[in-house]
Amino acid sequence: MKIILLTIILMIAGYLSGSIPFSYLAGYISKGIDVRKVGSKNVGGANVFLNAGPGPGIIAIILDLIKGLPFVILAKNLGLPMLSLLLIGSAAVAGHNWPIFLKFEGGQGLGTSAGLLLYFLPKEFLMSAITGVIFGFLSPVFKLKGWFSSKIHFGALIGIPLVIVLPWFFKNPMNIKICPLFIIFPVGVKQIHLIIKKKLGKNE
What we know:
Blueprint: H1 2-19, H2 22-31, H3 45-52, H4 54-66, H5 70-77, H6 82-97, H7 110-120, H8 122-142, H9 151-165, H10 174-177, H11 179-203
Helix pairs in contact: 1-5, 1-6, 2-3, 2-4, 3-4, 4-7, 5-6, 6-7, 6-11, 7-8, 7-11, 8-9
């Protein structure tokens, strides 16, 4: 019962931590812009980098990367099981995607989930990330259109399945093998949400 209660409390704390809109704040403080209304309109470090400059962008990216970790690390130090850590991490990604401080209009969760995956699966994540970056830069070669024409999106399309599959090729315990499914779940839900929102917008 104590483990369940602590997990719920830290999930709420993780969600609130993930809800801190560092990318929005970086854009607003540095250039007075609302990143939800410029560029890709995504509340993420890449959009800040492109529209507010490298300085604010790098700061936003780093803060988004690490903001899912504090309560996961606290949970680990408290001796909570791996399932609790994964639920708390997933709650932080959900906070980034649907932040209470921005009326639930957040980013896509790639940065926050990347920070968590680097913590849980450093080797597998780095292999997947490097592969995703390489293919992302090659995306113009394939002359892709629409959503996949974005270097970030195309890289994620390659990197995310890899980070899900790779843990099964190493001698990892089962809770590590399923780790990406928990962390990436809010990212997938966000993409479905965006697709539905876009379709509804076209139909209006």
